[in-house]
Write a structure and sequence with these properties.
extended, alpha/beta, 7 helices, two-stranded antiparallel sheet
Length: about 180
């Protein structure tokens, strides 16, 4: 089950953990904790900001992982699933991550400083993965250049496709939205 840190303030989060612990359900809870639920900082809405510690209060095994590091996330996920298979009990994995953009297109992001975003960008997941691959001899600079060129081509093709699209006809806007009306005879 995937959820963001904003969900921990909801009753369903606690009810789910309680029931999973009570019934010893083999379920993996994954919290993508980016520290901001919509526009509210986790530190302003929760007295305990360590989500893994909340799971512990229900007797559920839990761990935190750097959610910006895909290699670490994969390793932690494998450990969690092995635990679940072996013990047939729930497990919670908290991935500490960051959302670089607003929660929606209407989010003006007045709740965080540009310096904060810049600091997190240095730890971006793509940047970290590229560095890890280079350090472990899994990627040559020439291969990275080729990947970046392919990605740029794919993006440009998607933009061209979108820009060449046609507007939906107004009379078709409600087609397949509502069930056909039935008349009582």
């Amino acid at each position: 089950m995937f959820f963001g840190e904003g969900a921990v303030a909801e009753g369903e989060f606690h009810e789910s953990l309680n029931l999973a612990a009570l019934w010893q359900l083999p379920v993996l809870f994954i919290c993508e904790n980016n520290n901001y639920a919509m526009g509210t900082a986790l530190t302003l809405s929760e007295s305990e900001t360590n989500i893994a510690r909340k799971a512990d209060s229900y007797g559920i095994a839990a761990a935190q992982v750097d959610g910006m590091n895909v290699v670490d996330v994969e390793a932690a996920t494998l450990e969690a699933t092995e635990f679940i298979h072996k013990h047939q009990k729930p497990y919670l994995l908290e991935c500490k991550t960051y959302r670089f953009r607003g929660h929606s297109s209407f989010d003006s992001q007045l709740y965080r400083e540009k310096e904060e975003i810049a600091l997190w960008e240095e730890k971006g997941p793509v940047r970290q993965l590229v560095q890890w691959m280079r350090n472990n001899s899994h990627l040559l600079d020439s291969e990275l250049d080729e990947i970046e060129k392919d990605v740029e081509k794919e993006i440009q093709a998607a933009v061209r496709f979108a820009e060449a699209g046609e507007w939906e006809l107004v009379e078709d806007l409600y087609r397949d939205v509502y069930s056909p009306r039935q008349t009582n005879s």
